[in-house]
């Protein structure tokens, strides 16, 4: 296929990590990425070059461009962890070669050639050939959220208790998990920051939706925890909210951190609970899960595609912003609740 | 055997838990226990009544009498979690009956009849018939420290890394673990609060002894961790010291809390480490370990007795204080380093 020598991309302004903690809201794109023209990369032996049709913006992208994600930035390289597109070139290995011409969902991982660009590079094993029945919007957001949802709900199911807790309940990820939970008779307890999110989340599958800003939040939280006895806490927030939730949870509870939306200090309120109540605190990262549980990756991928194909899952779209308009428009689009913002190169 | 109807005991002043956090030093006994006379209890079906020869004072006893341990106090009942003595009466079950007349190490657990008294009640399964070759001082301090040492060192061995970290390095427990570690070629990194503890701990088996009060402590800590790559952190302290140590530890490290000597706030400095470095935070409690690993309890008990019999282990004795003098003398004796304080009823 014809591949040009240069491409437009949103390139990282900063290098490495930032020492300044900040909140989850992206006040502006300009300090972190700039639109420019860069040479189209050549894929390595095990990699694929993808012509990007649609790239997603996840909370992890926002943290990453600000230098607050678990991977260092490389200045001048395109940002963007996932997207959908057509494989137009590949390395010499058989599997990457077999992908050429196919539409794939992809995660750029540590390739340093992100999806917020006309072309992106991903490891072939991080490319998922898509069924025709999967929409671009769903393919572009298939890896970071849906696979994480399936993996984290698997943890809930293994624990066995029907009730579990999630912060950032209105996120796309938590909505996916709530839906899975409802299907199998589990009871998600989720926190949100706006009353208008409550009805929708209950409809999707949340058993309880608690507004963390409500004056009676802590009392309600304790009541709900007492009644439901949740043991798994899937936490995207950390900080004082998460500390309070973990403190109120019963014996043998597990606080599983997968995000850090609140830059505030995270306190273990009662370390004695770790000793005498056998509670523990750990993390979740999709890459680690895929490394540790290779046999579950394939079935999870197929499950995600089936769900998007038959309409059980559908990604809510807030906006699809052209690459050239991203810097100006994305921050405002991200403030809108209940949906995902995409970039179209 | 002749058992009187009444006995002297150090009885709890407070009830339940205390909400006031405090440090590890015991400024006085009077606010927490009072000497008095109480009816000698009758053992239940599965229990043994022990004429106490010697009772130990552990950090957990100090925390308990102040209402800051993981079990609620019952006002008016005798304190004291462990001791040594002769079984003088028992419940009707065969195993308790078989113990009558025997010298045992015992842990009072949740019997509410502690060892700081002329007679104590323990579950028969928490009574260990002693070899004649085990001294009373070693028997009186056999369960809380030696069994914990064997259990926690087992966790270190399972992890596989030769180096590991312990706070409160000068405690009897850490000394026992350091000795076990040296025998098997492991490298304990321990923290202390006094320079004069350093030489002794190195002699016992610590590979590195760091004074947490030293001005270059944090720099030294990072250097040692970088060189040794410890993955297990056995922590009796929590608070800022423990937070700093865990923060500096490498990928896949486990912070295992078993004590709470510092009442200061315990912070997870970088929750992102839980996600991207797969670190985790958990607790250790001997009762839970014995519950989860029943098959390891017997061999650990035999190992402890052998070590005390052949002199590989020996409990350092700071003082043996008569019951009647305990309230006046114990606080001062507890401030002396490097040994254990006992109460003789």
TrEMBL record, chains A, B:
- SUPFAM superfamilies registered for this protein in UniProt: GroES-like, NAD(P)-binding Rossmann-fold domains
Q: Does the keyword Oxidoreductase apply?
A: yes
Q: Which Pfam families match?
A: ADH_N, ADH_zinc_N
CDD domains in the record: ETR_like_1
One GO molecular function term? NADPH binding
InterPro entries in UniProt = ADH-like_C, ADH-like_N, ER, GroES-like_sf, NAD(P)-bd_dom_sf
Pinpoint the Enoyl reductase (ER) domain residues: 24-343
Q: Which UniProt keywords apply?
A: NADP, Oxidoreductase
State the protein's name: NADH oxidoreductase
Q: Which organism is it from?
A: Mesorhizobium helmanticense
């Amino acid at each position: 296929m014809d591949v040009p020598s240069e491409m437009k991309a949103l390139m990282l302004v900063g290098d490495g990590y930032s020492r300044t903690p900040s909140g989850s809201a992206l006040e502006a794109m300009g300090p972190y990425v700039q639109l420019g023209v860069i040479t189209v990369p050549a894929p390595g032996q095990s990699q694929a070059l993808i012509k990007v049709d649609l790239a997603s913006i996840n909370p992890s992208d926002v943290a990453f461009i600000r230098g607050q994600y678990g991977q260092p930035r490389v200045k001048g390289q395109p940002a963007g962890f996932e997207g959908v597109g057509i494989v137009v070139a590949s390395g010499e290995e058989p599997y990457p070669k077999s992908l050429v011409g196919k539409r794939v969902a992809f995660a750029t991982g540590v390739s340093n050639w992100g999806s917020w660009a006309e072309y992106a590079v991903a490891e072939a094993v991080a490319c998922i050939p898509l069924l025709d029945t999967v929409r671009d919007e769903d393919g572009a957001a298939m890896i970071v959220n849906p696979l994480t949802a399936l993996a984290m709900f698997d943890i809930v199911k293994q624990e066995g208790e029907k009730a579990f807790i999630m912060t950032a309940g209105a996120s796309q990820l938590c909505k996916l998990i709530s839906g899975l939970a409802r299907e199998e008779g589990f009871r998600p307890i989720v926190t949100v920051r706006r009353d208008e999110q409550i009805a929708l989340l209950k409809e999707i599958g949340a058993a309880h939706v608690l507004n963390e800003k409500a004056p009676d939040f802590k009392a309600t939280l304790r009541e709900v925890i007492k009644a439901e006895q949740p043991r798994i806490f899937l936490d995207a927030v950390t900080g004082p909210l998460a500390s309070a939730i973990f403190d109120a949870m019963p014996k043998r509870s597990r606080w599983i951190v997968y995000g850090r939306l609140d830059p505030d200090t995270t306190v273990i309120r009662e370390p004695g609970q770790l000793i005498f109540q056998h509670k523990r605190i750990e993390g979740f990262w999709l890459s680690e899960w895929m490394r540790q549980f290779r046999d579950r990756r394939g079935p999870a991928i197929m499950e995600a595609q089936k769900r998007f194909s038959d309409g059980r899952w559908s990604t809510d779209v807030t906006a699809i912003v052209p690459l050239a308009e991203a810097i100006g428009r994305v921050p405002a689009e991200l403030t809108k609740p209940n949906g995902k913002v995409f970039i179209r190169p």
